[in-house]
Amino acid sequence: MRLDARVVAVVDDGLPRPATPRRRVEQREDDGQHAGHDQDGPEGTVVDEVEVDGDDVEGEDQPQHEQHDSQSDVHEGTVPPKPPVIRVPSPPARAGWCPVCLVVREVLPRHTWGPSLLGEREMNIDDSFQNALDRFIGFLPNLIGFLVLLIIGFIVAKLVQVAVRKGLEMTGIDGHLERSSAHAYLSRALPGVGVARAVSLVVFWFVLVFFAVAAVTALEVRELTIFMNDVLAYLPNVLVAIAIFVIAALLSSGVATGVSRMMGDTPTGKIVATVLPAVVMVIAMFMILEQLQIAPEIVRIAFAATMGALALGLALAFGLGGRPVAQRVLEDAYAKGREEAERARYSRRAASRAADPTDPTGTATRRYDLPADPADPTDPAGAHTRRGPDEML
What we know:
There is one protein chain. Helix content is 57%, strand content 4%. By secondary structure, the chain is mostly helical. Among the domains are: 137-220; 246-353, no CATH class. The protein has a three-stranded mixed sheet, with no helix packed on it. 9% of the residues are buried.
């Protein structure tokens, strides 16, 4: 008896595949010996076609007893009916796949045929929208608290600004500064803005920043909270810098006024009254930059270089080639200063003599009309002993 079995490997995955040659296995039973040959069987040979997965047929070494069913007992000369087709499920194929996807699908293992590889993951829009809505609703109380604190802070800061400005205007600080030499520096630093308005504006922003920090903290946003805390920590430096500028302006005004009164309207007095306030403001500028922490190392180096250059220039001017000229200038300035001071003193005494009805003869201020003191070579008549009561002070 001879039994031929023909096995065809078919993969049912819905993809077009090129025709593959059928593998035919012949099994002969002749005197208890079996042999497989690739040839057509004689008439009456039973041929079974079984469709299996492509991975099940690997080569010629596959055992032949797995390729045959229980039809080995079919007698020679009879043709049995076609057996049922065994179909192994395969991953579904999608129309329009690119060749690369097909290759990847065939090469990689089946557990990697996922949507993440082939782009078949579908986003659930409803869930995403719901999550976003939940987050917004959860953040809404923080946003409302932020707006409420900001509005309250603006109102409070505005009220404090108005109160500070009215108080400074009542003191008349703008008028005092306008009549002083500090008005020139303040007008350059704050053009078109009075001192009262400038101070009130600084107070307004100071109060508003405090409320802004509290409002940002209510948002519970870590980055904004850190930033506002840094701003709040830097704000005292700004206030100290403003205070240094105002104090330096007032000090420079006082220095200029004092020099004018001491040295009069002399060339040296004019020079000193111009230079000293400028030096005070330059020092104040270095102090402000240092307080604001703006390139502190460079500020220190520049300040040291400026002061050193000024001292070196004065030393060279008065110690070397300019010593005779500087001596004459100082002598002339001193003489003129003394002359101006004596003239001013005489003018004041003459005015007081004319205004005093109890001294019609002017004996209280007759110092400049009498001879000099005999003890003094320049005052042989001893008139110094008869000075008026106003000169005794």
